[in-house]
Amino acid sequence: MKKILPILGCAALLLCVLSCQRDPWTAWERKVITQSDSVMYVTVMPEDSVILRASSRDIPERAFGTPELQTLIAKMLATVNDPSQGGVGIAAPQVGINRRIVCLQRLDMRGEPFEPYINIQIDSLAGEISVGPEGCLSLPGLRGDVPRHTRIHVTYRTPEGAHCMEWIEGFTAVIFQHECDHLDGTLYVDRADSVYTDAAWAEEREAFSYDRPAWWE
Ligand code: NI
Predict the structure, then answer these.
(1) N or C: which end of the chain has fewer CB within 10 A?
(2) CB within 8 Å of 154: residues ≥ 6 apart
(3) pLDDT grade, residue 111 (50/70/90)?
(4) How many distinct helices (H) and strands (E) make up the chain?
(5) Residue 128 designated active-site
């Protein structure tokens, strides 16, 4: 027994070391990240529902500082900024990766930069609920009116690994809620009061404008 205990201890230590050094990325994730074009394929419903409807996992500590994380963020930013997409935010499941990463436009900051947020969580929903229009790169040709909170508190990590928290307000809070929903497999149409095709949406807006009195403008 005295001889077995040290051996068991060494084996446990070895297992622990091996698991800590385990590759933080799956073979599929590495393939998507490294082999995709700089503007990535955007997953769409219903073809990619397995990815878009899944819950995303946190980025583990050992993934911070890896070239894969840097590449994924750079490609997500290039994708959401591509003229063919023209979105204000994108979540990792929209490029085929079920991890808790979003890149979105901070309309509340000077210069309105796109910023990455890792392991993001909304831990408080506050403020009034306001209904506003939304669209999604993964639901092309559709728009909807969605009720959202106007003030939220978020915690997240930067690509460098820093832990951050902040209150977000206004339309930027709506973008955060839309993108974070993607990480739980939720799409805006699940929350929408009403959903329109682009054509019906334009028609409705036009009809509304006809109803405006002459002094409206
Ligand atoms: Ni979306």
Answers:
(1) N
(2) 117, 120, 121, 122, 123, 165, 166, 168, 176, 180
(3) very high
(4) 7, 6
(5) no
- Report residue 189 as tokens: 């149409």
Give the C-alpha separation, 120 to 175, whole Å: 13
CA 180 to ligand 1 center in whole angstroms: 9
- Could you tell me the distance, in angstroms and rounded to a whole number, from the CA of residue 139 to the centre of ligand 1? 8
Secondary structure element (H or E) that encloses residue 62, with its range: none
Per-residue pLDDT at 204: 74
Which is the catalytic residue, given 179, 204, 206, 217?
A: 179
Could you tell me the pLDDT band of residue 216, with boundaries at 50, 70 and 90? very low
Locate tokens 């994730």: which residue?
Answer: 29
pTM above 0.90, yes or no: no
Ordered by start, the domain boundaries in the chain are 23-205
Judged by average pLDDT, the poorest of 30-39, 78-87, 97-106, 154-163 is 78-87
Give the pLDDT of residue 1.
55
Distance 17 CA to ligand 1 centre (A): 39
Is the CATH number of domain 23-205 3.30.70.330? Answer: no
